[in-house]
Amino acid sequence: MLELHDAPLAPLTTFRLGGPATRLVTARTDAEVIAVVREADDSGTPLLLIGGGSNLVIGDKGFEGTALVIATKGFALDGTRLELAAGEVWTEAVARTVEAGLAGVECLAGIPGSAGATPIQNVGAYGQEVASTITEVVAYDRAARETVTLTNAECAFSYRHSRFKSDPERYVVLRVRFELADADGLSAPLKYAETARALGVEPGDRVPLGKARETVLKLRAGKGMVLDPEDHDTWSAGSFFTNPVLSDEEFAAFRARVRERLGTQTQPPAYPAGEGRTKTSAAWLIDKAGFTKGYGTGPARISTKHTLALTNRGAASTEDLLALAREVVAGVREAFGITLVNEPVTVGVSL
């Protein structure tokens, strides 16, 4: 294991923000991961887990404790069954499944981060989410002090949420298992209208896997959602806020606010989210509240390509970023009565 002290954490995050960690350890095997976690638990040392760093907002003061980088490797394909080590780079894993002719995660191409983070957030985009293909998650249970295997049902997946996210101090993901589909080189049925339009087909159609992946990568790149060190629009955590899910009563009140503010002909985005619940668009809310692409004059600004991404223009601090996030949250709340919830995990700070 590699161990450093007073080590900078900013380079390990896609925001490139945050102060140093008292101790930084890089583990390359499951046994090393478990050993570091047990040591921290036994000594009462605060522990921060880092994968690809694409979903982290770390405070400027850094982290007083042990930061553990999970750098395990492992890509095992058996027919349509896939097992990934937590440290595998997600975008590379998706590319390999497409090359193998297997469908199920092709529309999740270009999402930065590690495989081990995908079940925590129930990562999803362009009509797919990992909950649809994950069969099991192997994790170290810090409470029971043993390695456990959780089924899909036991992971309690929901929109951008899971058992792991609701109890973040308990589980350390070690391996993720998927069941993909052999559709003779074709994608899963396309669920996202934007993807279908870009491909010139209808929702529900299938297209060649490689074409689906390439199209999603182009769509993401056009929104600054594919990492590029030269493009400050990608110095972000992707979507900073989750799409609000509202009860029927809440949605009715929201729609009334929209009509009052934008006119009776304006209809806000609305997507079914289960009985008595409707999901609307955080990006639409932000834009209609006055926070357009490129908003801001300081070192942290809204992306010039997508209103849902907050970005570091190169010289920002975490406090700069949080000030912008708070301004957006307050503005959307005032305009529409909805409080946006941040998607990235915050460390040592909060909105």
Task: Name a few traits of the molecule.
alpha+beta; four-stranded mixed β-sheet; 9 helices
Secondary structure elements and pairings:
Blueprint (H helix, E strand, L loop, with lengths): L1 E7 L11 E8 L2 H14 L3 E4 L5 E3 L4 E8 L4 E4 L2 E5 L4 H10 L18 H4 L2 E2 L2 E2 L4 E8 L4 E6 L11 H4 L4 E9 L13 H7 L9 H14 L22 E3 H15 L8 E2 L4 E3 L2 H7 L11 E3 L7 E3 L5 H19 L8 E3 L4
Parallel strand pairs: 2-5, 3-5, 4-18
Antiparallel strand pairs: 1-2, 6-7, 7-12, 8-9, 10-11, 10-12, 13-15, 14-15, 16-17
What does the model show?
The protein has 351 residues and is an alpha+beta fold. 27% of the residues lie in helices and 24% in strands. The protein is built from nine helices and 18 strands. It has helices at residues 30-43, 90-99, 118-121, 163-166, 193-199, 209-222, 248-262, 282-288, 318-336; strands spanning 2-8, 20-27, 47-50, 56-58, 63-70, 75-78, 81-85, 124-125, 128-129, 134-141, 146-151, 171-179, 245-247, 271-272, 277-279, 300-302, 310-312, 345-347. The strands form six sheets. The chain has a five-stranded antiparallel β-sheet. A hairpin with a 2-residue loop joins β6 (75-78) and β7. The longest helix has 19 residues, at 318-336. It is globular and about 60 Å long.
